[in-house]
Amino acid sequence: MKQHTARLGLLSIALGLSACTTTFQETKIDYKSAGKSQTPSLEVPPDLTQLSQDSRYTVPGGVVSAAAMQANAQAAKPTSSNTATNAIGDVRIQRDGNQHWLVVSRPADKLWEPVRDFWLENGFIFVSEDRQLGILETDWAENRAKLPQDIIRKTLGKVFDSLYSTSERDKFRTRLERESDGTTHIYVTHRGMEEVYTSSQKDNTIWQPRARDPELETEFLRRMMVKLGVSEEQAAAVAKADRAAAVTAVNGGVRMDTVNGQPVLQIDEDFDRAWRRVGVALDRTGFTVEDRDRSRGIYFVRYVDPNAKVEAKGFFSKIFSRGAEAAAPVKYQVQVKGEGSKSSVTVLNTQGQPETSANAQRIIRVITDDLK
């Protein structure tokens, strides 16, 4: 429930203290999970914990529209692949179409600890860490900066902090990808949930996916630049120029098709861009990527059929179930093949054979919807 009876009583008393207008600080970030420990947070609804370990996915909406610009506010010239690069020292923020990420001229092994510390310092704990694969996934956390900052909040909130909730939770996945030129690409993807009433009486609530926030992704990339050695002034200038640029990014078209009975995602882009976009889509939609082989264009993923029979009732119960009653994940290979300026994405089984099942159809559909 969003509010309990006892809480409402206390809030009723507090309302008499002030008639001040409530204001929100939506541009700030102040996440609260479980401090700096690795104990699952009691502030996070129980049915939101460990989502990634069950390999469930959701299909958040929204598109990335932010373009990162250089600190001196000079727009970088796009390359032949519409990629804009903005460097400060050995750290640069890069945009290609609707995607943005950091490129750091350091090996991933040297970046793991600073990036890991970055999330801990920002109030998160982790539910998944894989140093070899370069994956960090945070627990669900609440952005306390979105809480009302009126006199009631300032007085009672310090004592009864749990009285207040934004009814939103966020989690982030960070992927460090090693490149052949010795650099490391760092991707940050956001997933969000919100608590909504299920009836007009407002006597019950459920958690459901909400649109991802590309501005949050960009802001955390900017802050990560500071952690990696860029000054606050330079990082702030990047963000300011980014907002002023208002670049409309364009990605190549995507569409679903069927070839010899197998579902296929067709992308009007070369392999490099298609590989990058599919990887981000898998991160964003919650697939568990166990390994990847760029030379073969394969992501090794775990998938759970949302229609599989489990003891828990309801779609979201299946998504958030954590016990032995949950359906076992199935392993697949998501393969990206490039042919000149076009690429295709298919699903293979563990033996590397074409997969034509309903699960393959769903996987391709999820990736397609995210890339549109």
UniProtKB/TrEMBL annotation:
Residues 1-19 form the signal peptide. InterPro entries: BamC_C, NlpB/DapX. It comes from Comamonas terrae. The keyword Signal applies. The keyword RNA-binding does not apply. This is Outer membrane protein assembly factor BamC. Keywords: Signal.
